[in-house]
Amino acid sequence: MDIEAVADRILDGDRRALARAITLVESGREDHRAEARALLERLKGAGRQALRIGLSGTPGVGKSTFIESFGLMLVKAGLRVAVLAVDPSSARSGGSILGDKTRMEFLSREPAAFIRPSPSQTQLGGVARRTREAVALCEAAGFDVVLIETVGVGQSETVVAEMSDLFVLLLAPAGGDELQGVKRGIMEMADLILVNKADGDLKSAATRTCADYAGALRLLRKRAQDPEGYPKAMTVSALEEHGLSVAWEAMCELNDWRRANGHFDGTRARQARHWFAEDVRQGLLARLQTGEMRSVMDALAAEVEAGQMTPSAAAAEALEKLGG
Ligand SMILES: Nc1nc2c(ncn2[C@@H]2O[C@H](COP(=O)(O)OP(=O)(O)OP(=O)(O)O)[C@@H](O)[C@H]2O)c(=O)[nH]1
Ligand SMILES: [Mg+2]
């Protein structure tokens, strides 16, 4: 790949070049990795920043519908919007690919929009790195907003929150008074809770649910990166396109405040540090699986099993070999 030429085309906002570059960062091949690093290094100099919005919610809550109508609203306002997905359970036949191509039918036809389904890989660590790099590519291509979607199951919310400027939690109206078992840890990551499907028969339930979450948010510890009134809960209808502009205004207000108060840069710096350490960790784990280290590990494991070495002595020896 001609890195210079691809970089220039990406900086021109060429979606085909962007798609090819994302394929490059998704590859695990060593030569591809080297090219990907060179490309990202080259594009970093452009210094472009999008607003990165993480969006999470359980299956069926309306993420795809929301992204379609919210994305179209932003496009109509003159913004360029990229949509990426982190899907740790890509096992489900093509995952977001099939569903989203139909649900985001109109957005995917917009020249100012770019939709990329999640890479199919089982390892969350690998998906995280590739998504992060895809975000950087979209920023270099001049997108104003990058939406990073994830299904709310397990760790993927944390991964997405760690690469987002704003983290939005999409929830469904609850029946009765149960708070849908949203884990406290997830609540603590949210900047905005949107109770979707606030329309028709579900409207009053949505309003009640929203009030419950607003109350729950007030009970959480105050975070340094929030102005008065945030995190916030509000109702939306992705289907009837209600509340979307109000939600966008809240996102802008929060983001503006954070930019003005150093929290935007501070959070990005902290995230970069986190991903650096995470990549080193992943790299070390990968090294344990390869060639010589693998046989070293097998040999030491056999000695531990046979009772000839203690686990900690064997581990110390393995780590020494790894370092050398
Ligand atoms: N009434 C109502 N229904 C909605 C709304 N948003 C989405 N739905 C419906 O909810 C169902 C699921 O919507 P999706 O957008 O596919 O949900 P999702 O979160 O992307 O689901 P997964 O991709 O499976 O995780 C569909 O039948 C939508 O039409 C809404 O605002 N109001
Ligand atoms: Mg979906």
TrEMBL record:
UniProt protein name: LAO/AO transport system kinase
Family: Belongs to the SIMIBI class G3E GTPase family. ArgK/MeaB subfamily.
Domain AAA+ ATPase residues, every copy: 49-221
Organism listed in the record: Lentibacter algarum
Lineage of the species this protein comes from: Bacteria, Pseudomonadati, Pseudomonadota, Alphaproteobacteria, Rhodobacterales
Keyword annotations from UniProtKB, A to Z: Kinase, Transferase
A Pfam family this chain is assigned to: MeaB
InterPro entries: AAA+_ATPase (IPR003593), GTPase_ArgK (IPR005129), P-loop_NTPase (IPR027417)
Domain of life (superkingdom): Bacteria
Cross-referenced SMART domains: AAA
GO cellular component annotations of the record: cytoplasm
GO MF annotations in UniProt: GTP binding; GTPase activity; kinase activity
Matching CDD domains: MMAA-like
